[in-house]
Specification:
This protein is mainly β. Helix content is 0%, strand content 56%. The chain binds beta-D-fructofuranose (FRU). Beta-D-fructofuranose binds next to strand 1, strand 5, strand 9, strand 13 and strand 18.
Length: 484
């Protein structure tokens, strides 16, 4: 393991293999020299590293993009060819969209000799990350490109000539932010295949509530020409409520399942995280769905079912009630730092339902529901190594959301707490995946997801539950050891 990785891109499933391409610097562990790195998997969990698939060239860095399988030989390189669409980026040529094709199952790519296939008509400096997909009702291909603070939609019949159709996003969602890495998928609402909606994924940097980069989305319709958003411009919906979830995009050629892979870092401090000799990790692949809540439609992001294959041993802890605090001295013997906690919690009368995960050095992660404030919080201020995120100046960001403007002041980009809105319910289901340097929390089958990096100097192997304002009950509690 060496080098630098930022977001996954060009994800495609073909011939029973998942291809994970990603923004890769083979020559150092900070951002630079962008290539498409490559790994493959049969189950989304066990990955084999391969040689970089698309290498930087005279047109510039190979920035993010998407891949498709050309089932009908539309582009003329053969049936079943994998086509990659990416942005070439350089000071000289700017950001231009290019095409490459692979005749060997995605191992190597040949660049199209007439690249670029698309330039910005108004010379936008930021014009990148093409997402290409087949739109069956219109019998055509669609490309979405992030252009500064909007997404631009193009269509094509031959995958080479692209025709501008519309734009979406100016003034929508969190403001004012740079759009990156678009994706758009159609999904049934509450599992009803007669009622489908489109979700437009818009990664923004900055824009995260807690500073830096994050993933928002919009629900609406797509008529083949334009995206029509269901909500007003000032509504922001987040795919993940942590601080380390960015540039999420989905696998193409998957049939019904929509599976995304988030990059688990944040542009504020990704170049400084204390890992050696590499930087950059992905969060668990997640399966997306749409659900209705209070008349509005949201995306859920649950860990893919395949993650169960990593469970090596399960410890079941009998039910208990938390009146003040309740200690678990050891989660697992010889805990190597990768485990899953699954919990059913009966809220009873508690106002605060909390627990810390900690180690013998006192490094800890605090996770709690603050029910009077309707929040689920993860606090990593004392989680281990945290000092690489300090700012010399105070940042102030303003976030506009649901007709409110909140001003957040912070001097530390890393040592902080993130929170998600929750409803008051009798029962909460939590699935928490802890790894050597991350905590991913999923509430109620992924209705809320929260992903955060942490850098403990030894695994958190102890746990302390605490309540305030009344008792709560931990009804089922399982600890699964995870390993490859
Ligand atoms: C997203 C991003 C993309 C760009 C790539 C460069 O994190 O900034 O917009 O293509 O990373 O590595």
């Amino acid at each position: 393991l060496y080098g630098w990785m930022n977001n996954a891109n060009g994800l495609v499933y073909e011939d029973e293999e998942y291809h994970l391409y990603y923004q890769y610097n083979p020559y150092g562990s900070k951002w630079g020299n962008m290539h498409w790195g490559h790994s493959i998997s049969k189950d989304l969990m066990h990955w084999e590293h391969l040689a970089p698939a698309i290498v930087r060239d005279t047109l510039g860095h190979i920035f993010a993009g998407s891949s498709i399988v050309d089932q009908e030989n539309v582009a003329g390189y053969g049936t079943g060819t994998i086509l990659a669409f990416y942005t070439s980026a350089s000071d000289k040529n700017g950001q231009i969209q290019c095409l490459a094709y692979s005749n060997d199952n995605g191992r190597t790519f040949t660049k199209y000799d007439k690249n670029p296939i698309l330039r910005s008509s108004d010379r936008r400096k930021d014009f990148r990350d093409p997402k290409v997909f087949w739109y069956a009702p219109g019998n055509k291909w669609i490309m979405i490109v992030a252009a500064d603070k909007e997404m631009r939609f193009y269509d094509s019949e031959d995958l080479k000539d692209w025709n501008y159709m519309s734009s979406f996003g100016e003034g929508y969602g969190v403001q004012p932010c740079q759009f990156e890495c678009p994706d758009m998928v159609e999904l049934p609402v509450d599992g009803d295949t007669e009622h489908k909606k489109w979700a437009l994924i818009v990664n923004v940097n900055p824009g995260c509530y807690f500073g830096g980069s994050a993933t928002q989305y919009f629900i609406g319709d797509f008529d083949g020409t334009r995206f029509i958003c269901d909500s007003k411009p000032d509504v922001t919906k987040w795919l993940d409520w942590g601080k380390d979830h960015y540039a999420t995009v989905s696998f193409s050629n998957m049939g019904r399942r929509v599976i995304v892979v988030p990059w688990m870092s944040n542009w504020q401090y990704c170049n400084n995280v204390p890992t050696k000799p590499f930087r950059g990790v992905n969060a668990l692949p997640r399966e997306l769905g749409l659900y209705t809540q209070s008349g509005d439609i949201y995306l859920s992001a649950a860990p893919v079912a395949e993650v169960k294959n990593l469970r090596k041993e399960t410890k079941e802890i009998p039910a208990f009630t938390v009146a003040n605090d309740y200690h678990i001295e050891s989660l697992l013997p010889d805990n190597e730092g990768a485990y899953e906690l699954s919990l059913d919690i009966m809220a009873e009368k508690a106002e605060i339902i909390g627990f810390s995960l900690f180690n013998d050095k006192g490094e800890k992660v605090d996770i709690y529901f603050n029910l009077p404030e309707r929040k689920l919080v993860m606090d990593r201020t004392k989680s281990g190594i945290v000092d690489f995120g300090k700012n010399s100046v105070t940042h102030e960001i303003e976030v506009h959301d649901r007709r409110k403007t909140t001003s957040i002041n912070y001097i530390d980009d890393f040592a902080l707490a993130t929170w998600a809105p929750v409803r008051k319910e009798n029962k909460y289901r939590l699935d928490i995946f802890v790894d050597k340097c991350s905590v991913e929390i999923f509430l109620n089958e992924g209705k809320i997801a929260m992903s955060n990096l942490v850098f403990p100097t030894e695994p958190y192997n102890r746990m302390c539950f605490y309540s305030k304002g009344g008792t709560f009950k931990v009804d089922t509690f399982k600890v699964h050891r995870l390993s490859l």
